[in-house]
Write a structure and sequence with these properties.
The chain has helices at about 5-30, 50-60, 135-140, 145-160, 175-190, 195-205, 220-230, 235-240, 245-255, and strands at about 35, 50, 70, 75, 85, 95, 105-110, 115-120, 165, 255-260. α2 packs across α6, α4 packs across α9 (about 245-255) and α5 (about 175-190) packs antiparallel against α6. With about 270 residues, the protein is an alpha/beta fold. Strands 1, 2, 4, 5, 6, 7, 8 and 9 form an eight-stranded mixed β-sheet that branches. The chain has a two-stranded antiparallel ribbon with strand order 3-10. About 45% of the residues lie in helices and about 10% in strands. The chain starts with a helix and ends in an 8-residue tail after the last strand. The protein has two domains: about 1-35; about 40-260, Alpha-Beta Complex (Protein-Tyrosine Phosphatase, Chain A), CATH 3.90.190. The radius of gyration is 21 Å and the shape is globular.
């Protein structure tokens, strides 16, 4: 065996040993504590973005409103962030998962710079939230508890000047619907109503999702239009379905929206 072959063999053996150690280390450190590592996250796209920054960008493509969203308040991603550095997904303060599965008790998580684990909230265990993209989904009484719990916790987090990361499997449809509702809610609280330009900007954020099929274009605009037609306003609908207080909505609005064309970072 020549010298180059020996070096290649040693390098391959070293790489294998390091990989096995890494797997053992993650299992011993995280998996045994009920945390879930998405190994594909090392290579997969995370479909991550800051919702406020994304909608600001979308407004710039359409028509400028009289306000801007602050950065670092609401974040979104798919599940592949789990087990990897928090900085990959905006370094959130809290994680909210829409991915509960019956019989699975583990949590999604990311790792802070100080090696502290930030795990997802999982207090909304039943039923599974499979779809949220239509008015019928939001009117389904069996989903009221879980989705209203998520809404209230995210709004409370935002009100406390803490950033919230929301995710599902693809970070697209369920996450998109929740982000659309939250965005529309604070826009309406700020300016009194939702206009066509607001719907277009929120829909634009949805269309920036990776893996989004063209036939799904328009789903977020349709959802918000249907909700508004049903009850007259997003706030009234969510107040009736989730009993959200005006104070929690106003608190989130104050932290997420600024009445200026100057973008403010958290």
């Amino acid at each position: 065996m020549n010298r180059k072959s020996k070096i290649g063999k040693y390098l391959a053996a070293g790489f294998l040993a390091a990989s096995l150690f890494g797997i053992w280390f993650y299992k011993a450190t995280y998996l045994d504590d009920g945390l879930h590592v998405e190994w594909e996250g090392a290579l997969a796209q995370l479909n991550f973005r800051d919702v406020g920054a994304s909608i600001n960008h979308c407004y710039e493509q359409e028509s400028e409103p009289g306000f801007r969203f602050n950065n670092g308040v609401l974040l979104r991603a798919n599940k592949f962030f789990s087990g990897w550095p928090c900085r990959w997904v905006g370094d959130p303060d809290e994680i909210f998962s829409l991915n509960h599965r019956a019989g699975k008790s583990w949590a999604y998580f990311c790792v802070k710079e100080n090696s502290k684990v930030l795990a997802s909230h999982s207090s909304y265990s039943k039923p599974e939230i499979v779809h949220l993209e239509t008015l019928e989904d939001w009117e389904d009484a069996t989903k009221n508890g879980p989705i209203c719990n998520v809404m209230a916790q995210v709004l409370t987090t935002m009100s406390a000047s803490r950033s919230a990361l929301v995710h599902c499997d693809a970070g697209r449809d369920r996450t998109g619907a929740l982000a659309a509702m939250l965005s529309a809610l604070v826009i309406e609280a700020h300016q009194g109503s939702i206009h066509a330009g607001d719907l277009a900007a929120i829909e634009c954020d949805y269309r920036r999702s990776q893996t989004l099929a063209r036939e799904k274009w328009g789903m977020m605009a349709t959802l918000l239009t249907d909700v508004k037609f049903k009850t007259g306003s997003i706030q009234r609908f969510l107040a009736s379905r989730c009993n959200l207080s005006q104070s929690i909505v106003d608190g989130a609005k104050e932290k997420w929206i600024v009445s200026s064309r100057v973008l403010v970072s958290r």
